[in-house]
Write a structure and sequence with these properties.
- This protein has 249 residues and is of the alpha+beta class.
- It has two domains: 185 residues, BirA Bifunctional Protein, domain 2, CATH 3.30.930.10; 42 residues, no CATH class.
- Helix content is 20%, strand content 32%.
- The chain contains four helices and 14 strands.
- The strands form three sheets. It has a seven-stranded mixed β-sheet with strand order 1-2-5-9-8-7-6, sandwiched between helices. A five-stranded antiparallel β-sheet has the order 13-12-11-10-14, with no helix packed on it.
- A hairpin with a 2-residue loop joins β7 and β8.
């Protein structure tokens, strides 16, 4: 039976380990729908058959070679208008854990994909449950490639390919620890944008993007209050939502 020992106050202290499941996010969401749950509950598995990524994509890795976990949180303190702040919190916490594992070139591709240089090593998927104008609870799903070394035609990488030696359990403990640091600051109302921007992939760099059927060159200048990506380019539009712009690698 898996028993992690994160050096955190509450995030990851309650643990649910499943050798395999469809999706850790689905398991955590089910706990939330049941009404009562422990804030900071960690759901972790060796293999998920129907893991989900951003934009409705499927995220699936080789059994036992990656970190596949979800955190179930009581986010009733957050107004719906501030829900992107949870994305900032999660991205910064996981980025810090990756840096602690030795990944010096760790970056966050807006809004919360995890990259080593220009290669994806993981991602974060947040699903919120709302109650009127506030959040009721949130599930933060985290997937990181650790020792998987083949990805088909995908431009992906893993910690082992990047020269980092860390086991799944240690990385999970570090994610819980660092996530909690930023989560406590989020509860206190801290603005995390200033710390998010320096780790943002492509910030102040000229890169190619696609919006709709248009391919263009632009420079990321920041993010808006609601989490839109601010891109300087020849296009009249400057702010983009998650489904409105894609990076070209």
């Amino acid at each position: 039976m898996l028993k992690l020992q994160p050096k955190s106050l509450f995030v990851g202290q309650k643990q649910i380990y499943l050798p395999h499941c469809h999706s850790t996010n689905d398991v955590a969401s089910g706990l939330s729908q049941n009404g009562t749950f422990t804030d900071g509950t960690l759901v972790i598995t060796d293999y998920q058959s129907k893991g989900r990524g951003q934009r409705g994509t499927q995220w699936e890795g080789e059994p036992g070679k990656n970190l596949m976990m979800s955190l179930l949180l009581d986010t009733s303190f957050l107004d719906v208008a501030r829900q992107f702040d949870l994305s900032l919190c999660a991205a910064l916490g996981v980025h810090a854990a990756l840096r602690s594992a030795g990944l010096a070139n760790a970056r966050v591709k807006w809004p919360n994909d995890l990259y080593a240089g220009n290669r994806k090593i993981g991602g974060i998927l947040i699903e919120n449950i709302l109650r009127e104008s506030r959040l009721r609870s949130s599930v933060v799903g985290i997937g990181i490639n650790i020792s998987q070394n083949t990805f088909g035609n995908l431009q992906a990488s893993s910690l082992s390919l990047e020269g980092c030696t860390v086991d799944r359990d240690t990385l999970a403990e570090q994610v819980c620890f660092y996530f909690e640091q930023y989560y406590l600051r989020l509860q206190q109302g801290d603005d995390l944008r200033r710390e998010y921007l320096p780790v943002l992939l492509g910030l102040n760099e000229e890169r190619e993007y696609i919006s709709g059927d248009t391919k263009f060159t632009g420079i990321i200048r920041g993010i808006s209050e609601t989490g839109q990506l601010i891109v300087e380019s020849e296009l009249p539009r400057k702010n983009f939502d998650i489904k409105e712009i894609s990076f070209c690698f």
